[in-house]
Amino acid sequence: MASVNETIRSASAAGRGVFVGYLPVGFPSVSECIDALVSLARGGADILELGVPYSDPVMDGLVIQEATTASLNAGFRVRDVFTVIREVRAQVDIPILVMTYWNPVVQYGVDRFSRDLKAAGGAGIITPDLIPDEAEEWLEASDAHGLERVFLAAPSSTDERLRSAVTNSNGFVYAVSTMGITGARTDVDTAAQELVARLRSVGADAVCVGLGISTSEQVTDVCAYADGAIVGSFLVSALSQGGPEAVERVSEALSRGTAK
Question: Looking at the whole model, is its pTM more than 0.85?
């Protein structure tokens, strides 16, 4: 399996961006989640992003909050993340990142989580509420287990903070397209393009943009200046309304927008 960074480089060499597709683990059930992720990959996603349900999400919009709450109410456990990754990796061969708030990882054990993630076939972790300055244990564990790190950068970030995110990310830097929470929008904030330019100026070679992307046209717009587009809420809505089949149809449509 190619790494996240290798996947981005390969797509760039082919003249296109990557499509990163997000779905929460365990929604609407563990088995249906597995089917939906496989459908997402078969529809054209280059990288899968698995969200870990958490009781106090600071950045999730209503669509994702409702899905993760349903997963928690159905009995989600952190170990389900590794079960899902193993089952998905048995059927598709693309990188799988885990998006998680840091508290569940700490409660599980940082080194133990890293070890189990690697053993299951995961590529690394996106850490929305962990900054590099406070990530020493994760930096050590990820290096020890060969996992990729994705830190976030926001339009409000200082150049120093952006430089730190770039230096410590080895998958890509996650550029938050707008100030706020997740959710499909009719347009993607123009601050995203400026943010990507700032990240490039401090040395970023792989940047993907997320929050608010819901159409093939938006994916095309983002891939014109970034290395990839991340879609979450729109895919969760598709899964809620039409199951894995709808996820595959939406994935096919979104993936057509990756050409630069």
Answer: yes
